[in-house]
Structure formats: structure tokens, C-alpha cells
Amino acid sequence: MNDGGALLPHHSVWSEVAAILSGLIGGGRYGLKIRVPHAVVMTFLFGSHLSFKQKIKAVAKLAAEHASNLAAFACLYKLMLATLKVLSRRIQQGRGDLHPGTIRHLCRSLSAVLVNGPFIPKGHVLSTTTPVPGLPEQPYHAFLAGAVGGYYVWGRYSGVNYQLILYLASRILVGCIKLASEKGIPPFAWKRLSFAKTYPWAAAGIWGTVMMLFEKHPEVLHPSLRRSMDEIYRFDSFASDGSAASGTR
After folding, report:
1. Which of 57, 80, 120, 203 is the most buried (most CB within 10 A)?
2. Torsion of CA 197, 202, 205, 209, to 10 degrees
3. What is the DSSP string of 12-54?
4. What is the signed CA dihedral for 112, 114, 119, 124, rounded to 10 degrees?
5. Nearest Cα to Cα of residue 79 among 131, 29, 7, 16
6. What is the separation, in whole angstroms, between the first and last Cα of the chain?
7. How far apart are CA 191 and CA 173, in angstroms?
8. Tens digit of pLDDT per residue, the chain (249 long)?
9. Is residue 69 a contact partner of residue 150, using CB atoms and an 8 Å limit?
């Protein structure tokens, strides 16, 4: 048995366990740190119809959901990474069988595609270096572990989960455009389409679109965004009762 086909060494197993527990703790801690201030501001700002006790309960519920979801996702993600490392080595180890049966060979090939991805070159051998605990051995492992965690943790619809999906979607879009620019992929790599030159046009398009939707089709906007826009664009500070303008939808 060569080092490339060996399973995780004993000390590395415990390091992976420590990484999983660290993800669990770190996810919960960060979730509370981020959500509590946000929930307090939003609940007390827009929850005027709630009693003080109801506001406290709403803040606690939002903070608990955010923290528990981040903790669960981080834990599951790290667990999946560790599992994929072990499975990769088992598959690599199985290549030493010189005369596998047809069914066995087919199952091994399908397992290799599932665990290591469809784009691994034929004959690829795993690195003989000890894997870094808590980190993926290849980008595909990060994608697969993240997809599994996303489905089971963030796949249940809620206001908190949906908000994070929207947050990530915009960051991913910007990140992919930056990556395409770095890789020299046109038109993103064109110098005349630099960030400084395209940002004003992006701002114009985004704000023009959101205002058109707000005025014509407000029902398609996210409720929290619509409430915020109502506070700004449907409030008449000179009305006799200081309330929103009569055109409020």
C-alpha cells in the first residue's frame, strides 16, 4: 500500500474531528454576533405593532435560527470534507486490484466520478502529503460538501434562509465576473470594461430596475425591501397626520 492510497492517519482523524467541532462552534458564534444586532434594529424599527415581549421573542427566534443554521452547515460541511478525503483514498487504494470484475470496475468508476468529480484526469494519483484538516483537497469537494449542506440546512424556506441565499447570489455573481476577468475571458477582461468604468452603469441599471419594479410591480419585491422603500418613497412628512402618502400600496 502506498502513501497515496493510505487512509487518514490517526492524528489526522482527530484533527478533522477538531475542525468539525470548531466549525460547529464558530458558525453558532458568528450567527449570533451578526443576527442579534440586525434583528434588534429591524424588529424595533418595523415591529411597532408588536408588544415589547413579542419583539424580544422575535429577536431571539431570528438569532437562534441564524446561529443554528450556520453551526449546522459549518459542521456538515467539514464532516463532508473529511468523508470525501477518506473515500478518495479508498478509491485510490482499490486501483491496486489488477483484475477487478466488470460490475466491480463499473461501481468503482461511478464512485470515483461521484467522489472526485467528472473532470479528474485518467490515472490521477492523490497527493502523498498529509491533507490539511478542515480544508478540501480539491475544489470539487468544496462544491459537493457545500451543495449537500445547502440542500439539507438552507433548503428549507424561511425569511432568514432566503435572505442569505439572496446575499450569496449577488456576491457569487460579482465573484464570477471578477474571476472571468482574471482568466482573460472576454468581454469581462476588456480594459474598456474595467470596474471603474462599468460601476456607474451597473448602479444606473440596478437602481432604475428596482424603482420601476417598486412603482409598477411592488408585489414581486422581497417584503423587507418593499417595507424599506415604502418608508422612504411613500412617506409624506408634510401630511397633516405625518403618515405615509395616500399612494401607499
Report:
1. 80
2. -170
3. HHHHHHHHHHHHHHHHHHHHHHHHHHHHHHHHHHH-TTS-HHH
4. -20
5. 16
6. 71
7. 19
8. 444 445 666 668 889 999 999 999 999 999 999 999 999 998 998 888 889 999 999 999 999 999 999 999 999 999 999 999 888 888 777 655 555 566 665 666 676 767 777 766 555 555 556 678 889 988 999 999 999 999 999 999 998 999 999 999 999 999 998 899 888 888 888 888 888 888 899 999 999 999 999 999 999 998 888 988 998 998 877 766 545 554 444
9. no
- Only one residue has cell 442569505, namely 164
CA torsion 230-231-237-239 (nearest 10°) is 40
Reported pTM: 0.78
Upper half-sphere CA count for residue 122 (Cβ side, 13 Å) = 1
Reported as type and span, the H/E element at residue 162 is: helix 159-182
Q: Are 116 and 88 in contact (CB under 8 A)?
A: yes
C-alpha cell at 31: 450567527
Contact between residue 140 and residue 132 where contact means Cβ atoms under 8 Å apart: no
State pLDDT tens for residues 187-226: 888 888 888 888 899 999 999 999 999 999 999 998 888 9
Contact 161, 62 (CB under 8 A): no
List beta partners, residue 244.
Answer: 235
Evaluate whether 43 touches 59 at the Cβ level (below 8 Å).
yes
* CB-based contacts of 142, cutoff 8 Å, min separation 6: 81, 136
Which residues are bridge partners to 235 per DSSP? 244
Q: Which tens digit of pLDDT belongs to each residue from 151-180?
A: 999 999 998 999 999 999 999 999 998 899
